[in-house]
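Thread: "does anyone have the structure for this chain?"

Original post by V.I.:
We have the sequence but no experimental structure in hand. Need at least a predicted one for the grant figures.
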Amino acid sequence: MMKKPYPHQQDVIDKVRRAFIGGHKSVLIQASPRFGKTVVSSNIIQSSQAKGTRVIFCVHRDNLINQTANTFRDDDIDFGYIKSGMKYDPSKKVHIASVQTLILRLDSVKCPDVFFVDECQLAKSDSYDQVISYFKAKGALIIGLSGTPWRLDGRPLDELFDTMVYGPSVRWLIDNKFLSDFKYYAPSVSEDFDKKLVGDAIHHYKKLANGMLAIAYCINRDHSKMVCDQFLAAGIKAAHIDGTMNKDELKAIYRDYGDRKIDVLCSISLISEGFDLSAQTGKDTTVECVIMLKRTKSLSSFLQMVMRCMTKKVGGGRSVIIDHGGNVFIHGMPDDDRNWSLAGRETGADSNKRAEVEPPIICEDCFQAVVKPVPEFCPYCNAVMKKQKAVIKIIEGELQEIKEAERLAIKEKLKQEEREAKTLNDMILVMTKKGSKNPVHAAKMKIQGRAARQARFKR
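Reply from O.Q.:
Generated one for you, tokens below.
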């Protein structure tokens, strides 16, 4: 039976319908992680089935295909697949598609009346661009879904979408009891975070979240395994998971996590967007704590991580976010108001003019330089290449709760540094601290804007 949307979800559905009635052909839905974008999509699809509307719901990862399929089954939506290894059934009115497969079958699939694009901020890829443009040109209505509608390359999404409709803010969802409130712990803002993590993960988990169901997000597989071993050595029930593990092994770990036989899951990004933990554990399972043992420049990744523990708790109580990488000083707090726009970010103008070149790896047998990515065997002497491990430096330090005063102080400090920046290099440093993807371009725009304002005042 289809899940009835909450009033704030129904409001978004109504906004989408009004946008199409008003003449728009492509609409982007911006709503925070944990809002229920799949519920909104499912309701739109369900209501359109009686009219015989053809729909394709496109995703970028296989686990999202399975997740969407589970939701559609629960809502009694009859569907087929457009996916490698599965037969396409043109008699179905609704299909769940992998973008990688769809791009290869555009000429053989029936054009939908409505085309959904999940996580559409990823539409920087040629595959997404081509698919959206293809169906749009054929008259399909386009609905994009995103919690963070900024393309990774900074290009504007208004190339693909006519308008954007907004869901409620994270703070509204918290205040109205749809999300859990949180406590946020991070290092001092004065720390230098480059290639460093501050504070011991075991110590802070015991101190701030002992016994809570937690997810520790790590830098890579080796780091995740190492952190898991450290938790186990400290007597804390923990397990490592990654995408190379078979489904039965993962299922057993998830089941133990749901039964609270495991307190901490250590992962890289397996538990990310679209992941339904309760479906994996077989029962209502709510993450209570997130431990960030990595630093990310992606706002989307940051929000997916921190909000994983903000699902509404049955017994109430606040979630705990433990940020060892100082991500809060790049992206702000989870409930900060963000001015989403279809226009591009400051990164777009010249962000791809200079390619970053990684240093080569030296073969330990023949001492030849081998360009990354590192092959299994040296191309010069055929020796087994040793993979370089990421150097993770842990420095001592205590994390402190980020409260309203500290939050405002962080913002004001950066604003003051921006006001005091006299040279381009000074401004580049400020933009870097603010987490700009392209601090050089951002700094140039700030300096030019300041000069333009000063010129107007002189008139």
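V.I.: this helps a lot. The radius of gyration is 24 Å.
O.Q.: and Residues 325 and 454 are 38 Å apart (CA to CA).
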